[in-house]
Amino acid sequence: MTATHAHHLASCDALRLTGASLESGLTSAEAEDRLRRYGENLVKVRGGTPGWLRLLRQFTAPLVLVLVAAAVTTGFLGEWVDASVIFIVVLVNAAVGFLQESKAEHALEALMKMVVAEAVVKRDGKKVRVNSTELVPGDIVMLAGGDRVPADIRLLETKSLQIDESSLTGESVPASKRPEPLHTDTVLADRVNMAYAGSLVTAGSGTGVVWATGDRTETGRVAFLIAEAVDLTTPLTRKIARFSGMLLWVILALAAALFAYGVLVRGGSVIEMLMASVALAVGVIPEGLPAAITIVLAIGVSRMAKRRAIIRKLPAVETLGCTTVICSDKTGTLTQNKMTVRYVYAGGETFEVSGSGYEPRGSFYDKDRNEIDASTRPALHECLHAGMLCNDSAIIEKDGAWSIAGDPTEGALLVAAEKAGLRHATIHASTPRLDMIPFESDHMFRATLHEHADGRRIYKAGALERLIERCTHMLDARGNINKLDADAIREVARSFAAEGMRVIAFARRDGSVVSGELAHHHVSEGLTFLGIQGMIDPPREEAIAAVGKCQSAGIRVKMITGDHAVTAQAIAKQIGIAGADTVPAIAGRELAEISDADLPEIADRTCVFARVAPEQKLRLVRALQSRGHIIAMTGDGVNDGPALKQADIGIAMGITGTDVAKGAASMVLTDDNFATIAAAVEEGRGVYDNLIKFLVWTLPVSVGFALILLTSVVFGFTLPTLPVHLLWVNLTTAILLGLMLVFEPPEADIMKRPPRDQKTPIFDFAMFMRTGLISIIMLAGSYWVFFEEQSGSASIAASRTAVVNVVVAVASAYLISCRSLRRSIYSIGFFTNPRLLLGITLTGLLQLAFTYAPMLNRFLHTAPIEAHAWLRILGVALAALLVVEIEKKIRSAR
User: Fold this and answer.
1) Where are the alpha helices (DSSP H) in 520-634?
2) Taking residues 259-270, what's their average pLDDT?
3) Residue-wise over 481-504: b if at least 16 C-beta within 10 A, else e?
4) CB-based contacts of 486-489 (< 8 A; 24+ apart in sequence)
């Protein structure tokens, strides 16, 4: 079967050829059999960088090329041992970089695949939600606004269905779909009875049979928005790459200057000065830098995934640390998304409803708190009846736990009706649905047409503002039709909203006005108002704590919701977003009247935006960005895509979010919880911190080496270290010491600092000063130990061995201090990063082998040293640690 041979078929023929049933769909056994026969609904996606090219790339980095050149030069001078060691270092560094980069790419690809498209299908006569990869030809699929079409589908039923096929046809306007068969020669762009994989449902609903899957689809791309190749670069890594390029030229210039000075000024031999220049170049190059960057980003992404935040675009990891404003939806993100009807206003009376959650047990009470039988109150009964009919959700009980299949708001309406004795199956059987207008955010209502005992009847449910304007009458307490009292209804709605409740209004109309399909004009006038139901979605306890944590971190939280302004303001106060002196919530209508020039200032000082249309979110993001804010924006609907793309970090909901929202987002929350955003911000700040910590640690080690060599040439001292020693130190310390910093957990006060300004340089003045301080300590300590050893009976090899141990000891001590660049090491705990302690221990063991192992003595030109030398070495390391800790304290006091 191919999609090009389905558009000319009648619906019954398409079902017959696929062996499908519109009423019951496929059986589970048949679906499994077809899955084995046709394979998963997957397509070949653009792959990442081939392995061989990733390996080759490890040798083409400019800093590595300098090492290769140094090895060639050393070999040319006959120093084959040194040349071999340099080549071994290059190979080990390349292997580490290749393995870590491969691991990072695979990890990111695995995480991205967690954000897969889903589809609603009929299996064994029931509606179920399945992973789109499990779809097979013959599956009956239901489509709704916001869905990404999961396969090539022959449409069988449509209701105002519109699909954006621009990715396939180039048409910018969504195509209106209908199920009638077409001519065989109809071109693809005009096949209005087909829905193609990868296209987007922008409005309406539809049902169809899967005709082609995987590579057999027209588009050949399922969920293409999440199947992009992994890119391991970010603005920060590119900034570091530019820094590395600049460092390369500095190294080459220093090496050339050292050679020229030694030969022309000091009169040294060409070979000796060439070896010194090679040693300088080798010593200064931070070989571990590329691997450290890759690993720290991969670890950050992995940590965020464990905290239920999946990163789809790597720059989001570092951008999270700069976020100044989080614009969050309310329902399900800041609240529990377990709506419960608390009050019903019908027939001029207000009734209280008991019970909580989705368990359909509870009672109704009148204004005097007397329990009543809802069936004896006609207006109340009809309002609850409307809520059950104007509904596509279901209540599910499993192992004693009650849940909702569908929309939480609709679920709350079902539970309230069940508490009144209305049974879902009985009501729908006695009042079958004939047609419907699905809910769309642009219209803010849903309408259904039913066959009723008294004839056809239309029910409408939606926002009070949109519905009451279309009503002319209302039911009184006895069920009689009276004149509408709109002011009284609005006053009750305001009182509900003031308590943080969401208000849904209901109306009905005689269905005899519908001769064909139910359309918008049928529900735009002549309605009879039935009542309103007020429901509460309680705030998440963890969201309240997370909002407080964000505010302590200098991040402002703004609520953007489609709910009533008073409701939104009440919930915002409970959560801590709004206070007593906060600017009142701004509604979507007011927002539309604010000019683009005035909006940035108003948006900046307002915390709550209510009744906001999806397209207004884009305006708000741009307005806040114009004030210099870094914006994180949540979204879940099809129309949230532009705002999510415009935001610095678009955050989609993994549970309730549409495929469009997930595709546009940089990050997906698998639990739809605001607390997860705060956790991701914390991890993002930690990632940046660890990168800076590594850089602040590695530079003094390299610069200190350079100063040791430069000093020896300038003052005519014997070289205190050889190129092979520098390579040994760079290799062992970069892997066993420096890389351990990337596992450092976020510091305790990381969410008490203000957001980082993206424009600030990688290093500030204080970090440069610390680099100079450690470099000078390393220089002075190395020469002190070297001269002390030389003044005794130590050989030149033993003296050089002592100097290498000084450098490693200072690097180890400084590493401990670098666990926090601002706070004392005593305040962060010694055992919070066990990998770092392991790295220091292994480094110590390697240095003992470097010093005392005969084979390494011959290979690396080292010699055993006496015990008094170790005392001097440890004294220099301790001095370095104390000096940095004192410098931290002084800077903190200032």
Assistant:
1) 541-552, 565-575, 588-593, 599-605, 614-625
2) 81
3) eeebeeeebeebbebbbeebbbbb
4) 488/348, 489/345, 489/464, 489/529, 489/532
Cα–Cα distance measured from residue 749 to residue 514, given in angstroms and rounded to the nearest whole number: 64
pLDDT at 170 over 70: no
Q: Is the pLDDT confidence value at 349 over 60? A: yes
Largest Cα–Cα separation, the chain:
114
The DSSP call for residue 264 is: I
CA atoms within 13 A on the CB side of 87: 11
Sign of CA dihedral 168, 172, 177, 182: negative
- The catalytic residue positions are 329
Cα dihedral across residues 781, 783, 789, 792: positive or negative: negative
Question: Residues near 834 by Cβ (< 8 Å), separated by ≥ 6?
Answer: none
Give yes or no for a contact between 587 and 567, defined as CB atoms under 8 angstroms apart. Answer: no
Q: Which residues are paired to 159 by β-bridges? A: 205
- 364-365 and 118-123 beta bridge pairing: unpaired
* DSSP H or E stretch at residue 472: strand 471-475
Rounded distance between C-alpha atoms, residue 428 and residue 634, angstroms: 36
The amino acid that residue 175 corresponds to is A
Distance CA 516, CA 340 (A): 36
| Predicted pLDDT of residue 854 | 94
DSSP sequence for 194-240: EE-TT-EEEEEEEEEEEEE-GGGSSS--SSGGG-PPP----HHHHHH
The length of the chain is: 894
**Strand intervals (E) in 627-671:** 631-635, 649-653, 667-669
pTM of the model: 0.68
Q: Are 559 and 607 in contact (CB under 8 A)?
A: yes
Q: What is the CA radius of gyration of the chain?
A: 35
